[in-house]
Amino acid sequence: MQKILWMFSFVKRHLDSKLVFDPFTRDWSHIPFLDHDWTDFYPDAYEPIPPNAPKPRGKAVQTNMFCDAAHANDHVTRRSTTGVIIFIQGTPILWYSKRQATIETSTFGSEFVALKIATELLEGLRYRLRMMGIPIQGMCNTFCDNGSVANNVTDPTSTLTKKHNALAYHKVRETVAAGTQRIALEFGKFNLSDVLTKNLPVYKHKACCASILH
What we know:
Blueprint: H1 2-13, E1 63-70, E2 81-88, E3 91-99, H2 107-131, E4 140-144, H3 147-154, H4 166-178, E5 181-185, H5 202-213
Parallel strand pairs: 1-4, 4-5
Antiparallel strand pairs: 1-2, 2-3
Helix pairs in contact: 2-4
């Protein structure tokens, strides 16, 4: 609720200012999002809807999220870094870049932790949008660049052999089953959230920033 009040306070202080917002919906029809029946695995999965939310008004907004992790890039503790960018329509609304609290011994583990963190940020954002009376267009389109993680969270029959990643594994899969998000492997040459986790070459850094701020 405090963040909602901050949003309204910002708008009130900048009534005469121009807020830049990209209103166009992205077309992801060419992305092979998988659609499975999760009933046998998470029969009670649902997305929490605030009971006291106002009636949605206006056009529904599309949410898109890019998630990445830089494995063991802290040279002192060897902890990984999580990078997340969430878009509403084509505008970056929330971004996150922070060292993970645990040490992961594999890229798979660090990517799963990053996706779990991104999922929690997404749930909070969707909750706030509903509390502001903003309708949301279906599921969030989420992209990660690790094939093993993408397979584990999109295929109901996949199993996890690493028990210490089980919490992140089930958290993300349950949101997919609840219809909060759908996840696909990053389709491009680079993930937009790379700019938050790695020291990129100049050309790649400029390409990421241009795509984010376009």
